[in-house]
Amino acid sequence: MNQNSSVRKLVHCGVVAAIYVVLCLALQPLSYGAVQVRVAEALCLLPVFGAEYIVGVVLGCFLANLLGSTIVDVIFGTLATLLACLVTYKLRNVRFKGLAIAASLPPVLFNAVIIGIEIAVMFPDPTSSAPIWLACITNGISVGIGELISCTVLGVVLVKLIESNAALRKVFATE
Asked: Most distant CA pair in the chain: distance in Å?
């Protein structure tokens, strides 16, 4: 039984990583750039159902960035997703009116800060004379809004859908 459980967790990781990559590449205009709503980021809430989803989401983010973005985003985007998934996992049992809203906030915050700074520092707007700190804030707000849509709207809906459907709960709940 333990070996079956390990295989099942490995399969979950692989499937989640593949779904993340496919969503990013299929929705490429929305997935990359300073203004983005990366639908695949909704998967950052899957650690609510088990720690193995952290590996799947982070691997998916790494591969999606490797295939569709820059090496800088491979490093910092993957780091933001790793930190977000770890904290999301820690907040997995916190609910507001039955919804995993608290678990949706780490991806928003980590990506807004890390990617906001990444864009401002590594890809500055040559037409702007704004100070770097202002560019960090405005980029962070832009990234944060996209993450709110992906995680706090789509991700929370995904968690609620899985939790309220017995068949989906059986597939995703591993702890």
From this structure: 61
Q: pTM of the predicted model, to two decimals?
A: 0.90
Q: d(Cα 13, Cα 156) in Å, to the nearest integer?
A: 20
Whichever domain contains 127, its CATH number is 1.10.1760
Residue 170: how many other CB atoms lie within 10 Å: 10
Range of the domain at 89: 5-173
pLDDT digits (tens, 9 = 90+) for 85-139: 999 999 999 999 999 999 999 999 999 999 999 999 998 888 888 899 999 999 9
Question: What is the phi-psi region of residue 36: left when phi exceeds 0, alpha when psi lies from -120 to 50, beta otherwise?
Answer: beta
Nearest to 44 by CA among 5, 15, 83, 97: 83
Count of domains forming the chain: 1
75-92 pLDDT tens trace: 999 999 999 999 999 999
